[in-house]
Design brief:
524 residues, alpha/beta, Rossmann fold, Arc Repressor Mutant, subunit A, 42% helix
Length: 524
């Protein structure tokens, strides 16, 4: 079997160490043939750096590395181009001074390796130094320059919560990226990758001809593995895993697909998360590999501040304008979660009015991990306590155990720091929904009917729990319970679920005090 390319970011090393490589050079060839300046966004650990490395080796003319690949007999190997490869993930950027010094150093290294002497040094002259490097490389090689920028936005995304550093880094990057447009006549090809499309960095304002291929369906599979690619290139690993876990080939394929295949940038074709898939084949265990590499603490805090956790309990809609450049000083968490890989495109509808996207969690790994983190972040509820509660609560719902459910809810509320509690019915509604969704229950919130809106419906195999939630600091808990049950009866919220056993559930909150009441619907 070929080696697994875990952590492989160098195309040269990958090809020289007999690693599996999914041939993406058809996409590479089409991009170079059809344009000059591109931006491509994908989540972390999704193969962006490897893609950049492929471009670099191609423009350097390293023919041997491409033997057997699509582009091999289509590329003019006699032509070589000077390449400026900048990986902002490797730079230091915890302050504006640090970022300036890091950029100066890397530009100096590139110049030295090319035998070029730069007249401009740092001291605020980074843009002039960059422009000088581009022009002198063009002259020295007699060929226009290729610019490859990996993680172009890293100094911004890693400092979103530090306004002072964010402001300084934005200013530096704005001036730096403006050079690309100013030196256009010296450039052969420009390719930038990153996680997010931020405004104010000059990339998308100054480079008005840049082609953002993030949601371009022609390049939707340029990173990640399609189903066909997975089964063709990792067949031996799949068969080994099926034997290890005592599952049939079809069963193991279905499990891998549920866990790691669901990312889509066109709403049609989905791809596997490459990092998690490779780790699965290496460890032979299903686990949250990708999610562990970077818990979205800043985004979870942002969701909590905006008090919109219920947004993540169902599908979300977004227009094409949602994916335009974002202001890093005023971040909307939904498009940012999409760009960072916690949400993906489930459906895409185009019309004369524009494009509408339906977003959702890509797979089991992200859904379960994200909701557990969200619950823990929103309530301080210990994540290690979450998995064991599902069976316990299932029994309480089936047996209409109001006292048992009350005790569990009191335990949940006890973990919420006082300063996080919001005195509103919407807050308690959100907590209840997130809690049960995280535990694995099939629950939906705010379901509209022709008579009103149901707070929540929990569906298990043969029964449905129709839930109404009340909150008040003035009314008695018992009074709110009776009011909730009467509302369900009067508005006949249960009508769409008469094919199942119907259980009515009323929940009343007053601060951290809670009371529940069940009622089984008599269909006669």
């Amino acid at each position: 079997m070929k080696n697994l390319p875990i952590g492989a970011q160098s195309f040269e090393i990958l090809r020289q160490t007999d690693c599996v490589y999914i041939d993406k050079t058809k996409h590479v060839f089409e991009l170079i043939k059809n344009g000059r300046v591109y931006f491509h966004s994908r989540p972390r650990r999704f193969g962006k750096s490897l893609l950049i490395s492929v471009f670099e080796e191609l423009f350097n003319g390293n023919k041997k590395l491409f033997e057997g690949l699509y582009i091999y007999d289509k590329w003019n190997w006699e032509e070589k181009y000077p390449v400026i490869h900048l990986d902002f993930a490797e730079l230091k950027y915890s302050s504006g001074q640090e970022l300036n010094a890091s950029i100066e150093k890397i530009l100096g290294v590139i110049a030295k390796n090319a035998g070029i002497s730069l007249e401009h040094d740092a001291n605020g002259l980074i843009p002039m130094q960059f422009a000088e490097l581009i022009k002198k490389l063009h002259k020295a090689y007699g060929s226009r320059v290729v610019i490859l920028v990996d993680e172009y936005d890293k100094p911004v995304t890693d400092n979103l919560s530090n306004k002072e550093v964010l402001s300084a880094n934005k200013r530096i990057l704005h001036d730096f990226y403006q050079v690309i447009k100013a030196t256009d006549e010296h450039l052969k090809f420009v390719f930038l990758t990153g996680v997010s499309k931020f405004s104010g960095l000059s990339v998308f304002s100054a480079l008005n001809s840049i082609n953002d291929i993030t949601v371009d369906e022609r390049y939707s599979t340029i990173c990640g593995y399609t189903q066909e690619e997975l089964e063709e290139h990792f067949k031996d690993y799949i068969e080994g895993l099926s034997k290890e876990l005592n599952l049939t080939y079809d069963e193991i394929i279905a499990a891998i697909k549920d866990w790691y295949n669901g990312y889509s940038w066109d709403g049609k074709i989905s791809v596997y998360n490459p990092f998690s898939t490779l780790m699965l084949f290496d460890k032979k265990e299903f686990a949250n590999y990708w999610f562990r590499t970077g818990t979205p603490t800043f985004l979870l805090d942002l969701i909590r501040r905006h008090n919109r956790p219920q947004n993540f309990l169902g599908s979300l809609t977004a227009s094409d304008s949602s994916f335009e450049s974002y202001n890093p000083d005023n971040v909307n968490e939904i498009p940012l979660l999409f760009q960072m890989g916690y949400l993906t495109i489930k459906n895409k509808v185009s019309s004369i009015k524009g494009v509408q996207y339906t977003l959702g969690f890509p797979d089991i790994e992200v859904k379960d991990s994200f909701l557990q983190c969200l619950l823990s972040n929103y309530t301080a509820y210990p994540q290690e306590s979450i998995p064991e509660l599902f069976n316990e609560l299932s029994t309480k719902f089936q047996e209409s155990d109001a006292k048992g459910l009350e005790d569990n809810l009191k335990t949940l509320l006890a973990h919420i720091p006082y300063q996080l509690i919001s005195e509103s019915e919407k807050y308690y509604h959100s907590i209840f929904l997130i809690w049960l969704k995280t535990l694995g229950f099939d629950i939906q919130g705010e379901i509209s009917t022709n008579r009103g809106r149901i707070d929540a419906v929990l569906k298990q195999n043969d029964y449905a729990v129709i839930t109404e939630i009340k909150y008040s600091t003035e009314k008695e808990l018992e009074e709110m319970l009776e009011s909730a049950l009467k509302q369900i009866d009067d508005k006949k919220y249960y009508e769409a679920y008469l094919d199942k056993k119907i259980i009515l559930l009323a929940i009343a909150f007053n601060g951290k005090d809670v009371k529940c009441k069940f009622k089984t619907l008599d269909k006669k």
